[in-house]
Amino acid sequence: MQFKVANLTETPLEISGEIDLTAMDTSKTLGLVKVDNTYVELAISKTDDFIDVDIFIRVKVILECAYSLEHFDQTYEIEDVLTFTNNEENVSDEVFFHDEPILDLDPYIYGLILTEIPIRVIKPGAKLPESGEGYRVIDYATYLEEKEQRKNQAFAVLDELEFDDED
Fold first, then answer.
1. pTM for the full model?
2. What is the CATH number of domain 2-116?
3. Helix, strand counts (H, E) of the chain
């Protein structure tokens, strides 16, 4: 969704409809396979140096389960307010700098969607795989515990060395 900044006014411009985010590169987000249906409602207005965008997103994404690698659908609903400014003095964690004549909201909408996706995606009802012949499945805490207990025998002789403390 792109808007000409010069055409924005204090009266909110209200727009709603489907947008296509399927072209976004999902390869860098672990667990995200595809952004499917994206419905957006927004009200965009400009006052002084600020552009405010009240946004509601309903999106269906296709995710990959970390346990089974199965793909499954997940729907998220997101509400947020994005604020932009063309004055560098007003920029903060909450206010984005934008001094171009066209405001493209697609990357910001995609970013809001990414914030909803968990770091480790697990399909509802999925269980951690069981151990089998020639392999075993352990949790991360067990891995760390075993790693701490295991020592490399090639370096065991170094544990017996004593060093003089010279200050």
1. 0.75
2. 3.30.450
3. 3, 7
